[in-house]
Every structure is written in C-alpha cells, then in structure tokens.
Amino acid sequence: MRLTKYEKETIILTSEGDDTYNVYTFNAGLKRRLADFAKKYPAVCRLESEDKKIGSQSYVVDKARLSIRLTAPYSEERRKAASERAKKTGSIKRK
Where are the domains of the chain? Predict the structure, then answer.
C-alpha cells in the first residue's frame, strides 16, 4: 500500500488532563529526532508503536519536553537585511 504525501500526516494529540503528547508521524526527519531523543531520554519519550509497512511511528512525549513555536513572518526590511548579511559573509552566492 502506497500513501500519497497528503496522506502521510503528522498528528500531535493530547487533552488538558494528559501529561503527555502522542506524536504520530511519517516525517523521516521528525522520526529520526524523536528516536534520538527517546534513546537519550527514555524516561520522558518512548516509541509506542510502529507500522513498518506504511512507514509511520507513534511516540509518547512528556508535555514539558515538547513545545510548538510560532514565528512571525519577516518584514521586507528584515528579509533584505538578512539577505545582504548572508551575501557579505558568503552564505549565499550572488546571481
């Protein structure tokens, strides 16, 4: 069974009464980060289930260990300043 990219979701579930998040994902980078974290800190993060056929994993993570950070979009002025700094330091090539 092959899933489309739209079917390969990342879902973070919790309730106000829970002390944990359940993170269900197909995302390779996130799975790798969660696996590394679970190996290093097994008391606060563990692999709950895995479906190797479709490529999903589910982790249980203490609420205090997971945060969601929202970042405001850059203003045009800030974007231009960052671009100029990157050009000066050689981080990006000029066209």
Answer: 10-89
pTM for this prediction: 0.76
Question: CB-based burial of residue 66 (10 Å sphere; 0-12 exposed, 13-18 middle, 19+ buried)?
Answer: middle
Per-residue pLDDT, 94: 52
Closest CA relative to residue 17, chosen from 59, 61, 63: 63
User: pLDDT below 50 — which residues of the chain?
Assistant: none
Phi, psi angle pair for 12, to nearest 5°: -115, 115
DSSP strands (E only) in the chain: 10-13, 20-25, 45-51, 56-62
CB 77 within 8 Å of CB 56: no
The tokens of 15 are what? Answer: 């309730």
How many CB atoms are closer than 10 A to CB 89? Answer: 8
